[in-house]
Amino acid sequence: MTTHKLTTDSSDPRLGHGSDSQPISQHAAYLVLSAEERAKGFIRPVRTTYRHVGPERKYPLRDLTSEEKKEYQDEGWVKFEAYPSGSPVIGRFWTQRELDVCDGVTTMNITIAETYSRNPKFYGSTYCVKCCMHRPVEEFVWEGTEERVGS
């Protein structure tokens, strides 16, 4: 089993940044809040387990029209989510990869969990042990809830 190091140094060269588009190993180190900062208390419950559920879909998805398939054939889009009239944008296209979510469950180190609990917006991405990728936190919910990680 690989032991991953924790650090409070944001310039630590072992840190990774952002989301992955292909499977990778976990990073050699992960950034956490200091013990002093975590000791100030938590604004969310300390939770150690989350589930990969994918990006949130607020509205029904529809198949692409034949015109859209032709126009966007190189984009990889397979569905469209139309937003209600009056929205600032008309909707969003989805790829099959975005729709095929692994539903994997990941359990994290208690220090990382306490960092989330002290500052839910501290991380922008988190690791899925089933996908073997760091993905945006909004693709995950805390296990046993519908609450998005990072909210």
Task: Measure the end-to-end span.
Answer: 31 Å
Give the strand order of the largest sheet, numbering strands 1, 2, ... along the chain. 7-3-10
Q: Secondary-structure element order, as H and E?
A: EEHEEHEEHEHEEE
Described by the principal axes of the CA atoms, the overall outline is elongated
- Strand-residue proportion: 25-35%
The secondary-structure class comes to alpha+beta
Q: Give the radius of gyration.
A: 18 Å
The average pLDDT score comes to 93
User: Quick one: how many beta strands?
Assistant: 10
For the sheet with most strands, the description reads: 3 strands, antiparallel
User: What percent of the residues sit in helical stretches (DSSP H or I)?
Assistant: 10-25%
Q: What do these coordinates show?
A:
The chain is of the alpha+beta class and 151 residues long. It has two domains: 5-54 and 105-142, no CATH class; 61-99, no CATH class. Helices cover 15% and strands 25% of the residues. The chain is built from four helices and ten strands. A hairpin with an 8-residue loop joins strand 5 and strand 6 (91-95). The radius of gyration is 18 Å and the shape is elongated. The mean pLDDT is 93.
